[in-house]
Design brief:
alpha/beta; 2 domains; 9 helices; globular; binds zinc ion
Length: about 230
């Protein structure tokens, strides 16, 4: 089988059966060279957004200082990997080309992290950041859903407001920071999230705007604590 990212032939070839059943080690999906491009974010990171930091002091980054000034509650966001070139390439294949097999590459690492945080931070529900119904129809899956462990309680209190708008990734950073609330509550959301501690999952943390909007709406709906996790930052 070829590496799912660079398409070079992998030394360990896989059967189609193992690929279809999903019983295969993630490291066999991509070649060594592609794997070595992913960089884990260590424990030294911005306490609010999880941005990788050099040195040994955990300080609030400039973006988070700005969020704080705007009066937004900290997300205690954490990401597993840096959003570097190899990760961007992965995302474009997984999300934009819709190669569903690629979920397996980080599924286990993300699920383990989610389970660990649920326990350590005494969280009640996991929420996958919603994608538009158009995007869902086009891609066929919500790219975040496979990262949620089957055994943890999850809920879907949010949905995207219906509005004709450009693709998030084609907007400039400034436009994203300034864009207004993209989410609205599902009809039963208040009942579900009231008094609850929530973990929102996204694929990539870019400016933090999307997650801050989701968090603000959930807190407004009665959630008592909202934190977030992404694959990359
Ligand atoms: Zn490769
Ligand atoms: Zn930060």
């Amino acid at each position: 089988m070829n590496c799912l990212l660079c398409e070079r032939t992998c030394p360990d070839s896989l059967s189609m059966i193992s690929l279809l059943t999903g019983h295969l080690p993630a490291e066999k999906l991509v070649c060594q060279s592609c794997q070595s491009g992913f960089q884990r974010i260590g424990s030294v990171c911005c306490p609010d957004c999880g941005r990788d930091q050099r040195g040994s002091v955990k300080t609030l980054c400039s973006d988070c200082k700005r969020w704080q000034k705007m009066g937004l509650r900290p997300l205690s966001h954490r990401a597993l990997f840096r959003y570097n070139e190899p990760m961007k390439k992965y995302m474009s294949r997984y999300k934009f080309l819709g190669d569903y097999r690629l979920r397996l590459l980080f599924q286990q690492a993300m699920r383990e992290r989610v389970i660990k945080r649920m326990k350590a931070e005494k969280l009640d529900y996991v929420i996958a950041i919603p994608i538009s119904s158009e995007r869902l129809a086009q891609r066929g899956f919500n790219q975040v859903a496979p990262f949620i462990p089957i055994q943890v309680p999850s809920c879907r209190p949010l949905r995207l407001k219906k509005q004709p708008k450009r693709d998030q990734s084609s907007k400039s950073r400034k436009e994203r920071m300034e864009s207004s609330q993209p989410f609205e509550l599902e009809p039963d959301a208040l009942k579900v999230v009231k008094g609850k501690r929530l973990l929102i999952i996204d694929d990539v943390y870019t400016t933090g705007r999307t997650l801050h909007h989701a968090s603000a709406l959930l807190l407004e709906a009665g959630a008592v604590h909202v934190v977030s996790q992404s694959l990359a930052r």
